[in-house]
Amino acid sequence: MSTLPDPSAGAAVKAADRAHVFHSWSAQGLIDPPAVAGAQGAYFWDYDGNRYLDFSSQLVNTNIGHQHPKVVAAVQEQAGRLCTIAPGFAVDVRSEAARLVAGRTPGDLDKIFFTNGGAEAVENAVRMARLHTGRPKLLSAYRSYHGATAAAINLTGDPRRWPSDTASAGVVHFWGPYLYRSPFHATSEEEECARALAHLEDTIAFEGPHTIAAIILESVVGTAGILVPPAGYLAGVRELCDRHGIVFILDEVMSGFGRTGRWFAADHFGVTPDLLTFAKGVNSGYVPLGGVAISAEIAATFDRRPYPGGLTYSGHPLACASAVATINAMAEEGIVENAARLGEDVLGPGLRALAERHRSVGEVRGMGVFWALELVKDRTTREPLVPYNAAGEAAAPMNAFAAACKKSGLWPFVNMNRTHVVPPCTLTEAEAREGLAILDEALTVADTHTV
Fold this sequence. Notes:
Distance between the termini: 42 Å
Helix content: 25-40%
Number of strands: 16
Strand order of the largest sheet: 4-10-9-8-7-5-6
Shape: globular
Radius of gyration: 22 Å
Strand content: 15-25%
Low-confidence stretches: none
């Protein structure tokens, strides 16, 4: 830690927070936000001197770790040179950020529209799809998260959509593949893939292909479960979109920029979408940034037709400088390769070993530094450790597990009956093994809630 414990300073920070800050996704009177004093690499710490190994990457976005010196220096240098400029101007750092992103996206996704984050990227991607096709409907999966803005929250499949669902947003949900809890009664990855594609094909037919502008999918489902699609699924969706003139959007906001051990998760599956959304790992959230990578065909739609969308801070120089530094550092330091190696050699085997020792672990799945442990009451029936969307006392077993992690110095990412193992891509093998050891201990708490 770079600072000495200072509980009085922490108390002052918390008091100011409680007096003036309105927090997202929270009942304001029921939360007690920790006061963070600093962070470095894979760790952050509070004012009381407690240090945490960040197995959440905050919101699965600090792919390059906390306070990477090259990124910090780039933001400082850019601030001294040009802090801001309107998006209508051409500026070197914005062009370079776009070039670096386009050089890593699959296929011909060579034009970049910058946004302030992932939700705005999704908003603009679906707007582009609707304008390109002249069609109104959007299809997305039930197990998904695409953001909290108007269209993005309606596209989202998890319960956070419910309070904001207008039932008039032109969104139709369908079931994606998820073999462990197969909605198609499949018994193998091959069956799950075939039946999920048949279900999607039926949904398209009954909705009317000529009414559907786009299908949007997370390349690897993130918050809703770290669901890696079976071989052939994304290619099958690509074929359905091509057959019916539907725009295929891949949401790589969480899975992009090294998270799965490739620059983009789509690279694992050899699939090129028409539009690809990104944010988070593009600069590890050092300055807000997201964007849409656009195919040549869709970009051409707006060669003579104005695109009706824009943002005051689109391609903000400080954000773009941090993206340039992040992408260059990831390439120079082999950070994407490190994520792949950790997943293959350390995290994957280590998590599967935990599953053998703990009866609360129903399934382990993932790749790179993008993993989930699905916790269950009963391995035979696969009953979740807590009910779907549990809160209060019903969520107590998962809360107890999370508390055990934090007590031992690991900050987990917990959602419903899962803990996601999503550390920075810069994690060392020693740090990975430290985190696995803490998870091993905390899972004994989860085991006490099994039958």
